[in-house]
Structures are given as structure tokens and as C-alpha cells.
Design goal:
With about 130 residues, this protein is of the alpha+beta class. It has helices spanning about 60-65, 75-85, and strands at about 25, 35-40, 85-90, 100-105, 110, 115-120, 125. It starts with about 25 loop residues before the first strand and ends with a strand.
């Protein structure tokens, strides 16, 4: 599912999260493997709700969006609102039983040789 650039594109060449692409390997601040990028959402500074700036859809449309991968990030509302403002990366854990994790864009340190480097340890990341 390609959602790179979904929403308002506020990324710049100097913004590491703007360089992140699906399928890239992710390592934490210690160099430990966190997983691979499943989704990238660039920030929307105007977002004030977990739904961002989407028009007032309701009922069947909301249900369908949730069923087909909508409603990201799947974290508590306050944290979701922050992540929608700054942007985030969803990381698919490396193991079969490992849960997905979310990385706020401000925790992406750099992208070097196709590897996403984080500013925090894996344990500090929010799980889905």
C-alpha cells in the first residue's frame, strides 16, 4: 500500500522524513534493527484532530476507511494528533510476532544508503 506523500507535502530536501520510502530498513539510535518502513505520512501543521483536515465524513465512509487501512496512526487520539502535525513513519517489526511501531518524524535522524536512522532507542517507540 503506497501512502508516501499522503496528505499535505510539507517535506523538504533538508527534512529526513521526506527521504523515507516504503521498504527501507529502520535502525534505532543504538543501531539495532527496528524493522522496515510500511508507511510514510508527511506532516500537516494544521491538523488538529486524529482525522487531520479531512472533510466531515461519517457512517459508512468512516467504516470503509478504517477497514481499508484508514485511521492511521492507530494510537491514542492526543498522540495521533501530534503525529499528524509532525508526520510519522509506520515500521513493520522484524519478527513474525513483532508489532508495528510508529516513529514521529522528529525522531528520524537521517537516511543513509537507504537505511532510516532514528534518534531514539526501539523501546521508546509507540506500538500499534
Amino acid at each position: 500500500m503506497n501512502t508516501s506523500g499522503f496528505g499535505t507535502d510539507n517535506g523538504s530536501a533538508d527534512d529526513p522524513v521526506a527521504q523515507v520510502r516504503e521498504g527501507m530498513r529502520v535502525v534505532d539510535s543504538t543501531g539495532a534493527d527496528v524493522g522496515t518502513v510500511e508507511m510514510v505520512k508527511l506532516g500537516d501543521p494544521e491538523a488538529v484532530t486524529p482525522q487531520g483536515q479531512t472533510a466531515g465524513t461519517s457512517g459508512l465512509m468512516d467504516s470503509m476507511a478504517q477497514a481499508f487501512g484508514g485511521g492511521e496512526p492507530r494510537v491514542p487520539d492526543e498522540l495521533a494528533a501530534r503525529m499528524l502535525r509532525v508526520g510519522f513513519v509506520k515500521v513493520d517489526g522484524p519478527g513474525l510476532l513483532d508489532r508495528d511501531r510508529y516513529v514521529p518524524a522528529d525522531q528520524v535522524a537521517s537516511v543513509v544508503d537507504g537505511v532510516v536512522h532514528l534518534t531514539v532507542a526501539r523501546e521508546a517507540l509507540v506500538r500499534e
